[in-house]
Amino acid sequence: MGKIKPHHKVKLIIGLIFKENQVYDKAKLALEELFGKIDFESQTIPFNHTDYYEKEFGKNLIRKFISFKKLISPEKISCIKCATNNIELNLSLNGLRRINIDPGYLDLAKLILVSTKDYKHRIYLTKGIFAEITLSYQNNTFQSWEWTYPDYSTQEYIGIFNRIRNIYIGQIKE
User: Fold this and answer.
1) Count of CB atoms within 10 A of residue 17's CB?
2) Cβ(65)–Cβ(42) below 8 Å
3) What is the pLDDT along the chain (174 residues), one digit of tens a residue?
4) From start to end of the chain, where are the E strands?
5) Are 164 and 13 in contact (CB under 8 A)?
6) Is residue 2 part of a domain?
7) Which residues form the domain of 33?
8) 114 within a domain of the structure (yes/no)
9) Is residue 87 part of a domain?
10) Strand pairing partners for 49?
């Protein structure tokens, strides 16, 4: 029998899809109030891998990724997803979201994303939240799976996650 021990802290990351910079700025401020100082913010990336959000947000969407200096316990990710859903609702207009906020975390071996949607490769956590291993770290970089979202499989995104992982390495060495 294995000995039960606490899990190591992980790096909170959040992907945001939006059209209007002022909505992003409001979301970013709300996220900082909840999770503390941001230690990484990606450049703006055109979000053109799917039209899934166009009915709600319109066309010409963009994405950014941020990560936070304070490491988290991975079991908190369900509550974090609930909190980001509330931010989305608070920033909605006329019943439509204006931003999509996708939290997850990474550690040395993987990138985990959470969702309210179940699927064959997702595991139920709690509070209506499911988790998936979106990327695994092998051969000095993140690698995708058959279920990985197409944009998360791009070298641009993988480069971002490798950079955030390097920040995390520095944090856990301290």
Assistant:
1) 21
2) yes
3) 889 888 899 999 999 999 999 999 999 999 999 999 999 999 999 999 888 888 888 899 999 999 999 999 999 999 999 999 999 999 999 989 999 999 999 999 999 999 999 999 999 999 999 999 999 999 999 999 999 999 999 999 999 999 999 999 999 987
4) 11-18, 38-41, 45-46, 62-68, 99-106, 110-115, 123-126, 129-138, 141-144
5) yes
6) no
7) 11-173
8) yes
9) yes
10) none
Q: Name the amino acid, one letter, at 107.
A: D
Around 107, how many Cα atoms within 13 Å sit in the side-chain half-sphere?
Answer: 10
Q: Is 107 helix (H, G, I), strand (E, B) or coil?
A: coil
HSE-up of 49 (CA within 13 Å, CB side)? 14
| Backbone torsions φ then ψ of 81, nearest 5 degrees | -60, -40
5, part of any domain: no
Please say whether the beta carbons of 12 and 164 come within 8 A.
no
Query: What CATH number corresponds to the domain at position 18?
Result: 3.30.70.260
DSSP 91: T
Q: How many domains, the chain?
A: 1
What 8-state DSSP symbol labels residue 151?
G
Torsion on CA atoms 44, 46, 51, 56, rounded to nearest 10: 40
